[in-house]
Each structure stands twice: as structure tokens, then as C-alpha cells.
Write a structure and sequence with these properties.
The protein is mostly helical. About 60% of the residues lie in helices and about 10% in strands. Strand 2 and strand 3 form a beta hairpin.
Length: about 230
């Protein structure tokens, strides 16, 4: 099976040349364009999530032989969550080669975090099926790179960490407010403000409410850490 020039270029960015090109085509086909003769990447996404999980579990287990389960679990969660998978997808410009239906394309599907994350997991599964676990594992470790070495001991997402900070001080959970929404429907930008019961606040912008909330929470955590030493 021949593949398009853009998929050939993507293989170079990925660092893997497929023996079975049909796997690559399937991994980059979103459900919005699927049909009876064109399967989408959802089943591959399911498998890729497990391959990624095993790869990261093994890498973290080997990297720090003294770490307890309570230390390894948040590091693992930080490395396999959707935000990280989408970040890796953007690193290799996976969005450029996704096959999307017209409505998904018009709504900015190539930049959507959840869509990119799912496609990244599908790519991992495709490599696994094409060349085996060791090849898929080596690719994941190479693409995740410094993220693995630099993952924080306490790698909880910022919103959870900020809520725990507030609860430890007997405050109500942080409040998130949408300050502004700008940009066209297919590429919105949200400005979110997070406010603590004690009055501290910060705000941040991102292409999704979720990311803006996380960024605002992280900014406020950094501010609190600086103020409290």
C-alpha cells in the first residue's frame, strides 16, 4: 500500500518506517471520516494507551529503585495524561496528517488536545503492531525524552494540588471564573481566573477552558510558594 507524501514525511519525524502502511493510515484516521471501508483509530487508541502505560511504568520503576508506589503513581499519571500525549503529538506535527471529516476540520480538530492525544496513542499502537513492543517502547522513550527525567516527584495536576492546598487550610475549593473568550469558534482562546477563599488569585489564557484552568492554578501555586518560601 502506497502512502502520501505527507505521511512519508511524518514517518521521518516519528522515527519509524512502517512495513504495513495500512496501520499508519488507520492510526491517523479520525472517527469523523470513518466508513465501512475506512476504519478509524479508536481501537488502536485503546491498545496504544496500554502500551504507553506499560512503557512508562517500566521506565519509572527502573529509573528510581527506591521510590515507593505513592511516589511513582503521580509521576506515571503526569507522563500518560492527555495533556502530555497531545504535547508529544504537537512535537511531531501529528495534527498535520490527521484525516478528519469536514465538520471536525472546520472546528479546528487538528489543534484539539483530546483528538491529538487519542491519535498519539493510536500511533503508538500502530508501531507496536507493526514492529513489536521493543520498537514501540524505544520510540515512546525517545519522543517523551526529558519529560521522563524531569517529571516532578509530586506530579499531581495543578488543579488537584491547589484544591488540596486550600483544603489543608480549611478553605472552600478554589473558584474558577471565565474572564474572557476571544477568537473564532474553531480557535477560541479562554481567559480563566482562579480565586481562593482567602483572596489570592491568578489568571491564564489557553485554547481550552481545561488548559486555562490548569495554567491559572499552576500560576497561583507558584505565587503561593514564592510568598510562603
Amino acid at each position: 500500500m502506497k502512502i502520501s507524501a505527507d505521511l512519508k514525511a511524518f514517518q521521518t519525524r516519528l522515527g519509524h518506517e512502517f512495513k504495513n502502511a495500512e496501520l499508519l493510515t488507520r492510526a491517523t484516521t479520525h472517527s469523523s471520516l470513518s466508513s465501512a471501508t475506512r476504519p478509524d483509530n479508536q481501537r488502536l487508541e485503546f491498545l496504544g494507551d496500554r502500551v504507553l502505560g506499560l512503557t512508562m511504568s517500566e521506565a519509572l520503576f527502573q529509573a528510581d529503585k527506591s521510590a515507593a508506589e505513592g511516589q511513582l503513581a503521580p509521576r506515571f499519571n503526569a507522563l500518560v495524561r492527555k495533556e502530555t500525549c497531545a504535547d508529544v503529538a504537537r512535537q511531531i506535527n501529528l495534527g498535520d496528517v490527521l484525516k478528519l471529516g469536514r465538520s471536525e476540520m472546520l472546528s479546528g480538530g487538528r489543534r484539539k488536545e483530546a483528538l491529538l492525544a487519542d491519535a498519539m496513542e493510536a500511533i503508538i499502537a500502530a508501531v507496536y503492531l507493526d514492529a513489536g513492543f521493543e520498537t514501540a517502547r524505544d520510540m515512546v522513550l525517545r519522543l517523551w525524552g526529558e519529560r521522563i527525567e524531569g517529571v516532578e516527584d509530586d506530579a499531581r495536576d495543578p488543579k488537584s494540588a491547589l484544591q488540596e492546598w486550600a483544603q489543608a487550610r480549611k478553605q472552600n475549593p478554589p473558584r474558577y471564573e471565565t474572564v474572557e473568550r476571544t477568537g473564532p469558534d474553531h480557535a477560541p482562546v479562554f481567559t480563566i481566573k482562579v480565586v481562593l477563599e482567602s483572596g489570592e488569585s491568578e489568571q491564564a489564557k489557553a485554547a481550552s477552558k481545561r488548559n486555562a484552568e490548569q495554567s491559572a492554578a499552576k500560576a497561583l501555586l507558584n505565587k503561593l510558594e514564592a510568598e510562603n518560601g
